[in-house]
Amino acid sequence: MRATSHEPRTTSGRVGAGQTAPVRAASKVKTLTGVVRAVRRMQAEGRRVVFTNGCFDLLHRGHTRYLEQARSLGDALVVAINSDRSVRTLKGPERPVVPGTQRAEVLAALAAVDYVVVFDELDPGHVIRAVRPDVLVKGGDWPISQIVGADFVQSRGGRVLSLPYVEGASTSALIGRIVGKAVKRR
């Protein structure tokens, strides 16, 4: 049986015969070229690739539910995350709370996520055009008409979906609660 990101890889030398070791999260973080190569391989095998993007600054249950639902729509999930520079431009000088390399590795550690790529632009348009996903998803706070890359994916016969928003699960609200508690302790 061939190992995939959802099946443990057998390793030689470090793990006993018949035992397996998990895929290291960092190995799922790729350059755009690496992701495109992997996606083309999967699509050539007839696998459906799902794509989403975001800042994913502080991971919370809204993110995990969303990513699990996104992954259920296909055979592999590619997550593109904004670089630190683009997060600062979009969210303000105090963000991101967690540096991009760490955000990427934490996301890659999730079983639902197959590949993570970091992009520096304010929107993922060029990444979507390079990856050419079969399914493009965003959270429910994004109407399909405003999802970057929707027209491109639909023009290629792909699907674009706005997945349900998890009420009460917001990075900005979480940061607000943390800051509020820190101020009260002083």
Supply the key terms.
186 residues; alpha/beta; five-stranded parallel sheet; 15% strand; disordered N terminus
Overview in brief:
The protein is an alpha/beta fold. The protein is built from seven helices and five strands.
Description:
33% of the residues are buried. The protein is built from seven helices and five strands; from the N terminus they run αβαβααβαβαβα. Mean pLDDT is 85; it is low at 1-15. Helix content is 37%, strand content 15%. Strand 4 (135-139), helix 6 and strand 5 (159-163) form a beta-alpha-beta unit. It has a five-stranded parallel sheet, with helices on both faces.
Q: In angstroms, what separates the terminal alpha carbons?
A: 57 Å
CATH architecture: 3-Layer(aba) Sandwich
What is the helix content?
25-40%
CATH topology, what is it called?
Rossmann fold
Biggest beta sheet summary: 5 strands, parallel
Task: Give the overall form.
Answer: globular
pLDDT < 50 runs, ≥5 residues: 1-15
Order of strands, main sheet, comes to: 3-2-1-4-5
Q: Structural class, please?
A: alpha/beta
- The percentage of residues in β strands lies in 15-25%
CATH superfamily: HUPs
Mean pLDDT: 85
Helical stretch count? 7
What is the secondary structure topology, with strand pairs?
Blueprint: H1 32-44, E1 49-54, H2 61-71, E2 76-82, H3 84-91, H4 100-108, E3 115-119, H5 125-131, E4 135-139, H6 150-155, E5 159-163, H7 171-185
Parallel strand pairs: 1-2, 1-4, 2-3, 4-5
